[in-house]
Write a structure and sequence with these properties.
281 residues, mainly alpha, 11 helices, globular, binds zinc ion
Length: 281
């Protein structure tokens, strides 16, 4: 049964990935997210369903448009496959925590929430990589939905006793508002960097993204994600400079590193923290 779930979720991820490509394209070209039929980007020919099957169409057409033979960007199949893989990872990560999975409980809501958030991250990843911008149209809805979801989570599962007892001591408050505290700390941290570096190192988009990461991951997992992002960013930045692809002080988008950090935090954050605590004790 588990393998069947995985296959269905992977295919679902491919389809969502295909939609995310459309979202990215429309963001780049300022069109509304839902309108019109899909067209070839070069010759504007309307595409058939055979041209729009995720990944397979790309392979079958050898990466070229059926009508004008112009190249189709590798971004399309890559985004589709990455979405598929991420959805499967999220599902299994979810499954290892909750042994009984059913579409009729809150774990299903959590799964949908994670699918939504990771879709958002994939769009931001690609867009920031290509254009050095984190689009407000994508990040603001994600922050609002995550905020509402976290409020709901607080009320629903976690802390009714704490709230019900009215023993709102500092310890209880920090437990209840953990995601919000993590969000403010992470966002504030990036905001401080911007002020100190006068906006050279980071952009306003990174502040919003860090805030969103804090909401999703909470404290202390957010630390793992940020730490990883900075390590990865430095290593790859140095590598690009050495390889002659970038100059010292030139722009490298930081969003993709933050997003990789977020996924690592989401999947393995708790384990890394336990491992680290064992190490220092
Ligand atoms: Zn074409």
């Amino acid at each position: 049964m588990l393998i069947l779930y995985n296959i269905i979720i992977f295919i679902f991820g491919l389809i969502i990935g295909s939609f995310l490509n459309v979202v990215i394209y429309r963001l780049e070209n300022g069109e509304k997210i839902v309108n019109d039929r899909s067209r070839c980007l070069s010759c504007k020919h309307i595409l058939n369903w055979q041209d729009l099957i995720p990944v397979f169409s790309f392979i079958f057409l050898k990466g070229k448009c059926r009508y004008c033979s112009n190249k189709i960007s590798i971004q399309y199949p890559l985004v589709e496959i990455m979405t598929g893989i991420l959805f499967v990872l999220i599902f299994n990560f979810q499954f290892s925590i909750f042994s009984e999975f059913s579409i009729f409980n809150f774990q299903f809501l959590y799964l949908l929430f994670l699918f939504y958030v990771s879709s958002t991250f994939i769009v931001i990843f690609v867009y920031d990589l290509k254009h050095y911008i984190i689009p407000d149209k994508i990040i603001y809805p994600a922050i609002i939905i995550t905020f509402i979801y976290k409020l709901f989570e607080i009320l629903k599962f976690n802390h009714w006793e704490l709230i019900g007892n009215w023993k709102l001591e500092i310890g209880n408050l920090t437990t209840i508002f953990n995601p919000f505290i993590a969000a403010i700390l992470a966002g504030g941290f990036f905001y401080t960097i911007i002020i100190i570096t006068k906006g050279k190192g980071m952009g306003g988009g990174d502040v919003k993204l860090a805030f969103l990461m804090g909401l999703i991951l909470g404290w202390p997992v957010i630390l793992i994600a940020l730490f990883l992002a900075f390590i990865l960013g430095s290593v790859i930045g140095i590598f690009l400079i050495l390889a002659g692809r970038k100059k010292m002080g030139s722009m490298i988008p930081f969003g993709p590193f933050l997003i990789i950090g977020t996924f690592v935090g989401l999947f393995w954050g708790e384990k890394i923290i336990k491992w680290y605590l064992n190490l220092i004790n």
